[in-house]
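dumping this here so i dont lose it again. seq + smiles for pyridoxal-5'-phosphate
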Amino acid sequence: MDGPIITLDRASGLPIGAQLVTALRQGVLDGSLRPGDPVPSTRALAKALGVSRSAVVSAYDQLAGEGYLETRQGAATRVAEIQPLLDPAGGATATAPTAPATAPVPSAPTTERPVEPRINLLPGRPSTSRIDTRAWRAAWRQAAALEVPADSPPLFGVPRLRAEIADHLRHARGLACSPDDIVVTAGTSEALGLVASVVAHLAGRPPLIAIEHPGYPSARRLFERRGARTAPVTVDRDGFDVGALRRLPGRPDAVMVTPSHQYPLGGRLPVSTRLDLIAWARETGGLVIEDDYDSEFRHLGPPLPALASLDDAGRVVLVGSFSKVLTPWIRLGYLVLPPSNRELRAAIAGARDDEACPVPGVAQHAIAELLASGAVRRHIAVSRREYAHRRGLVLADLDGLPGAPLSGLAGGLHAVVELPDAAASAALVTRLASEGVAVAPLSDYSAVLGDERPGIVFGYAAPSDTQLVEGLARIRSAILDGLAGPWPSSPLHPPGSTT
Ligand SMILES: Cc1ncc(COP(=O)(O)O)c(C=O)c1O
């Protein structure tokens, strides 16, 4: 590479690191940096631009996390061997699927009885096949070799892990936070339970928590199980209706949103709505719970900063998880508390004082080591490329089917196909189940009885390429058969399919 043409505008007020990221990313997107090109060493680029080396290191780290650069120990950092994932015109991904778009589909099902899924396309499952097992084992060996303390882990988590999580968020999410703001949790579920109990404690009564409709069903159930009342606010592809939140009877104590990748529909909240949500929180004293569950995997459009990074009111709590980034097997997540909200911090400390930190210290050390070694960052980069490829397979098979719009693919690990009506959804889910393909009905995500959207939700990360190609082909044929009509009426509904 001759050296990227980077012009820094020191008068713009934009951080130098962010300007570097934007310039280098643009270079990859417009082809002036080609796949395989080595980029200058951090020292050389820092010297050439007259900036600190740490700014360049951070920029390279972020771009590696986003999948634009490839870092390998002992070798030069290079532009990743991929087509740009981002179509600057905002159209579909430029990633070329490498597997056949359609696979032969055996004849129609012979039985309506659901069978054990051969092809599990239920959403929420990441790909674990590329986890660097050497780094994984080394991290656990190191953690196991540490002295065994006679105490519980610190209430907010092991300091080293909190520092590594803060560092991870800076690189992967552009979120500047201090290790002091991090609370280590046993995944999102425990984090949400903790927040719900603290909101109840602060309110002095069972709280009212506004939730997205459709939204994350486990969160709704979890809040209700902790005695909270939930108030659904309808979301569509354009996002969350803050006006409807304001109009809710009874002022909610908190609202939970998925601003980076609405679950399950897949939209992302525009900046104006984000600011409006923060204004709502400031006006009412409500808390915004930002479920940032899969935003490391953005496929289309630049990653939007976390809602928490706009919070000047001390009212946004970010909830993150390693369930998508690594695996739900480790049950590890975190809260990022707004630094200025001392009342919230004290209430969380109070709850933890009684309940203790639920994540074993040895697991915290192992994940801290995995983060520190760069294995997590590399895994995110590898997974992002793999998911972008899978996303290409989904688009190739299911995009543009008349009457069955595909959506939700700008980021993450799942997609949605909307269908004409509830009978079509039920028939499709049942037919697929009888063929050994598990998908979730979109109706499972409804927070309002009687207002279920017709469609299906399916994950494309965990199955093998071959399984995915067959699963997609079966979804396609079933939809085409159904659209040719009539959809076979079917009362069957595979139970317990949605998380
Ligand atoms: C919307 C949403 N948030 C968060 C999570 C992660 O949950 P946990 O960390 O409890 O595994 C998931 C997992 O499927 C999810 O779908």
